[in-house]
């Protein structure tokens, strides 16, 4: 007797009519027409069952703080940084924990079960570090939460930042972070990349660097990051987040840079919602949108994972823990509207992000933990188009969250009485 049987499911790789069996919290079989009984059976009815969504770049210490101590009136990056500086002294351990837990509730409802969060270490109290370490333990049964020690005010620019970063790592923070473009000089930025990568290599840790989050085409710290990655043997363990200056670089230099990133096996983590709203603020028209060169990176074989970055915090007043919203924006701003490209965008909030975070036990495969999401959509493209309803969110075979299908009552003579947008999926012509 199985614990759970999901019948007639579609999978992101294109398989359809598949039955998914779960026993003891793990996938037991994935094949059509299983002859089996289960304590609980779900009829997917041709809908998409996907591995859980993943956010490889977030700031949980600031999330849901919108309006404290004031609103970001201009909506700019610099006012957001200034506002965070005002908020930090006012933070309490309890408030950070409560806001983070509320966000994790929202994440579960959206099928978002793995998050990498940067946490500011430039506060000598390390208050946010301690708070998110507590949150990591509290949510461990249902969310994989990785923490990045992030010297948000600059490793060298902020007094005590390196000491605090090392203290945070000693407390159990998982990953080494940095922000080289925020240092006082380009030389300091390059030196910070070198020092942070050395710390990671010494401790056997991963690196996730806020890299070149600027419109300045001369901000080329990802070049240093690639060189240090190779020098220290960190290939596959380093992520370059944002990389927005690449949007403004000339094509000749990028033709050199992208192969260097590929050689170092650096994971690229753009954040579409934030990159296109914070960049290009000094432009009139034509106006740059700031997001890095996603199709070109993918074409070079670089792993691209999409992050949300912010949700209702000093930098971004919107957001809802919805990684399909992130993929939807990426499809539009990167002009990834071919069928294959839209599937790549879906991969960028699922399997690519799992690779970037080093999640080895991820995916709908026999023997792996039975973590998955049933969507009210037939395939990944429809999931992105609709930002599809999460009908069921499962962790280790247990249902964590359920949502009823979207149904609108309409009153039009001679027309159906109810409407669900998921029923508008295209039907390919036969023959």
UniProtKB/TrEMBL annotation:
InterPro entries: Amidohydro_3 (IPR013108), Metal-dep_hydrolase_composite (IPR011059), Metal_Hydrolase (IPR032466), Metallo-hydrolase_Enzymes (IPR052349)
SUPFAM superfamilies per UniProt: Composite domain of metallo-dependent hydrolases (SSF51338), Metallo-dependent hydrolases (SSF51556)
Gene3D superfamilies in alphabetical order: Metal-dependent hydrolases, Urease, subunit C, domain 1
Domain Amidohydrolase: start-end pairs: 40-398
Pfam families documented for this protein: Amidohydro_3 (PF07969)
PANTHER family in the record: CYTOSINE DEAMINASE (PTHR32027)
NCBIfam families, per database record: PRK07572.1 (NF005748)
Listed name of the protein: Amidohydrolase family protein
